[in-house]
Amino acid sequence: xxLKQILTAILVLAVFAMPIxxxxxxxxxxxxxxxYVKEEAGDSAAIYNPEQIRLIFYTAQTANEAYQHLHxxxxxxxxxxxxxxxxxxxxxxAELYGTIVADVENKKLTITNGGxxxxxxxxxxxxxxxxxxxxxxxEVYATRLPVLLVTSVSGVYTQYGESFACAEKCRLTALxxxxxxxxxxxxxxxxxxxxxxxxxxxxxxxPLSSYARISGLYEMDVxxxxxxxxxxxxxxxxxxxxxxxxxxxxxxxQILIKRKPLMEDYYDEVRPxxxxxxxxxxxxxxxxxxxxxPVEITxxxxxxxxxxxxxxxxxxxxxxxxxxxxxxxxxxxxxEEREFFMPYACLFADTRTGTIGIKxxxxxxxxxxxxxxxxxxxxxxxxxIEQFEDNDINxxxxxxxxxxxxxxxxxxxxxxxxxGNWFDLGAGFSAWVFNSEINNYNHxxxxxxxxxxxxxxxxxxxxxxxxxxxxxxxxxxxxxxxxCIAVSEESRINEDCFARRCIRRSTCNLLKExxxxxxxxxxxxxxxxxxxxxxxxxxxxxxxKAALGSGGYYGLLSVSPFSDAGYSGxxxxxxxxxxxxxxxxxxxxxxxxxxxxxxxxKQCPEADISxxxxxxxxxxxxxxxxxxxxxxxxxxxxxxxxxxxxxxxxGGLHDEYLLEKEWSNLIFGNPNCVTEEKAKTSWGExxxxxxxxxxxxxxxxxxxxKETKEKYVRPTENSLMNNHNLKDGDKFNDxxxxxxxxxxxxxx
Length: 748
Known about the structure:
twelve-stranded mixed beta sheet
């Protein structure tokens, strides 16, 4: 054969031989160490030494017997589960996969690149713990069979859909019983719903309610009940320093913690099974819901060292003053806030300001039984007990001081000192109590510095005093008269009174500084009435500023047309200090009661307009028919709110805004909130149909907002009767200004 043909044949043979050689090379597997076997099924594989496993776990006499047991002889030849099954007394206790090296002397298994899991029993004859540990290195200790100790530094523990993963310098240790599994975490890490674990590890956004930062927690048990499913922990923390979202907790008994989603946020329900100590961080979202038996909670952190005994009810212990302020409102309007706070009462304590605040709140057919004890070395000087829920006759809040036999018991309709005087507690207080005689709440405030108490701003000698009911002036004593409390001015005139109450007489004095420019023969008399002021000089200074304006503060006579020549002299101002003005509900909060104001106004018969300057916090408003307006001093800012409300009370002007609320308070009419047809005939050169929507507040849950916006127009895009926070000079639009001027010109 020619050489060329020989070479060609050799090349062909080599080409055909290459796949065969490659196939043989592919099928070659690394040789197992002597005595080791490999179980494979799908993606799972377990490599182990049956003899070593036998010496730790089994009574079989030979390695072959042990292998047959492990291999599960009920299966067909060469069929496996891809796992090493561990048995104790013929009951399966665990399944392992990965490379498993046994330390027979120490009864320890080391798993690399594998995992540990408890068996799953489809028959229901055994408890399905669903406990899993995965990681690069896992150690399993069998020194206390049938209990296994499973530990990992870099692993992840999963049970019932919840995963636990360590951060740096952390170790996971699971104690696995045949019927229960516990987890200890010795350093910082997270608890997270398993479905979000990979996203979290890869830096992707996950819901805030799906995970919690934890550290140093022991004997963690994830309940299996579907009723308790979700991001949930059952904890028994045996040592100090363990934290859950910044809260340090310790207890001799278990604590149930359930994370609940709240819109885009979350809150945690903490249910202690016994006494608990807790350090509350400033941004805590923890609600305490004890079991039926009373639980004692020691509260530390910004709260100092309070002891709270919660016998009944649920309570938020808040470190955030803003959150407490929201909770303390009589009515919470935002749906997400209602979901957060109801039906929880709220507790806020701050050693920096020396205040303790409590808002009693209960769910239906429940009650609140709460006792607070603060240390003898007390820094708390002020107790604020907010209004109880209406008709909550059973709830009690008790305040005591360590080492003192005195305690104060607050309820819906009473405040009772027991064992001594209220000032033995070393703190003043503020509280609301319901008075059935007048069907309203009274405000009681006691000053620890002066040891004086004020009921609706009127000094009283004891806590049990109430505003006196009466039939005539003779029942009231010196300095008081019997006032008719009626639903309207017309009812009062007709003596249609739903109650009669003794009211302190006050004088109607001219506000001297504000009247220097009054020139009118028949002036417009404006009476400023104090509510909540403790200083006459402070009240008169505020009233003067409201009349004249001062340094960027808008007063009535600083805004046109009231400031214009010929009009500023038409006003005369009076001041009434020292009246009792209890609160009544207005738009869900306590505002000065208009019925009492009507009685007080009688003491200043010259007054055309009454201006109640109140220290309460509510939404400013005006009563059109009664010529009264109500100003919450803490919230009126630069004072232009007074001028806006005066536009209502004096001029009958309407709101030029339209706000969607959960209630309706719409009022339309001349001159500035009318139909387009009316505007054409009454606005003259100022007519426009461009700016639609006015009248105030419309119910967003109905079609009235849309209808109002389509039907009613306002003269300008913006004005003092629309946005009273204008920055470019507050003013009435021309339609309103001409209307006011006409009214001023017709006074005399």
